[in-house]
């Protein structure tokens, strides 16, 4: 019966002009690409602004092509109460509670395996563990230290400008303002050098 | 297409000979020729040259754009990517309308490739470089949609290849079997059925293999790689046999292709199991720790195979089902380490491969015969060169197995009706 319906579906498709079908294929693909961009626009538009301090990444010279690899103070965090809790995956999603310090730079308060309640200035950012979920005898517990990726780690710049940013990053003069949605998803909104905005990301 | 041509040449030669010998009348010759469907056009030299030209122009364009990529405004870059997709599919539509299905298929595949490049470039332009696996999934979805709409085998190949990469990345990220791929695979298999296309069935069957390999090589030592792979091979082979036995012509064609890949997978698993059988990797608690979904796949494969036997009532299918059952028994029985070599498993594997060869001979399925012979050779080699255990015991086992086979051959020689003496 399934093959019958498959056959009738194939016949029905064959009756539509070829040009329309190829056009529809192109439209689907362009729509998927547009979705990528719209999704990011939504984060930039609706997300709470969070300033994050960058830090040198190891190995230090990590300029690849024309993008800068950004490491943050919140990239490597102690697991806290999460340590020795069972992890469902090798690279699970985690939620990091952030709060601003006196300079307005957000710092990590705690790491959680699922979303948690927040008080007023706090923000929850979502990341994926690159390391830290394979401890214990069966390698399925959270470790003492965690490495987290937030999808804020690469920033593409015009050729030649990467080196400058990299130097500033290594001197801890580079900060990133990220937009963070309530779901925890984040995108880079602008770059700050010594607290002053330099690269502002347009929506499109 | 290629085989079609070879068959026609042979048929023409035979027809000429039969006519000369007076076996068929000239009128019958004409009737036979008239009954043959026209050969599909395929590639001719002009088309090949045109394809090369098109590829060169596309490469020149890409190099030119790449040289000036940074200087172009972001929105213009985006427009160029979108235009590339529309042009590729527009060309595809034009070729399809002007009766060039091969070029139309190729255009849709090129469109799917441009779509993938666009995902990477948009990821770069908008700093979305993080989730590589997610990008692959998006690519696979776009390519599959294009394949479904345009009927392009090339786009289907792109979709399956990217889906396999997506699945592998997710498997190594999460460390659990990636069942989402099965949904994607079933959609692709549905397309192969709908198109009634052997090429698409081949693509779909090939795409199943890396997924099972990824499942079997997860660094979770609770289960054995060869056990997981055996259940996958059994499902592919049994499912293929059941499809091939079904009344629907399109299902039977796809099933024949699936069962071929299943037969080769079964032979591969048999060799792997024979190699690993004497090693320490067997967990002490046998089947208990094996994941239920794997066992269910194996059981389903066996049920499919015996259902196919019941439907076709052919001895060839019965032998194939026996081969399936025997391999599954060989990987499932646990041989305690103290009891010497895993002789039962060896015997079951050898019988299984012999069944595979016999089944191929009875069903006139040549790939199955080849798979069976490869399996026999591999299993004997694995038994002979096993790292552990006594060489003398192994030589006794091989000698006994050989004598049983010779005795069986003598008995069969007496029993079988002799034709054409």
Describe the structure in your own words.
- Chain A folds into two domains: 2-43; 48-200, no CATH class.
- By secondary structure, chain A is of the alpha+beta class.
- Chain A has helices at residues 2-15, 18-46, 162-170, and strands at 48-55, 67-69, 71-72, 76-78, 93-100, 106-112, 123-131, 145-149, 154-156, 174-180, 186-193, 196-200.
- Chain A is globular.
- Chain A has a five-stranded antiparallel beta sheet with strand order 3-1-10-11-12. In chain A, strands 4-8-7-5-6 form a five-stranded antiparallel beta sheet, with no helix packed on it. Chain A has a two-stranded antiparallel sheet with strand order 2-9.
- Mean pLDDT of chain A is 84; it is low at 60-64.
- Helix content of chain A is 25%, strand content 33%.
- With 421 residues, chain B is mostly helical.
- Helices cover 79% and strands 0% of the residues of chain B.
- Chain B contains 16 helices and no strands.
- In chain B, helix 13 packs antiparallel against helix 14 (343-363).
- At the A-B interface, helix 1, helix 2 and strand 9 of A face helix 4, helix 5, helix 6, helix 7 and helix 8 of B.
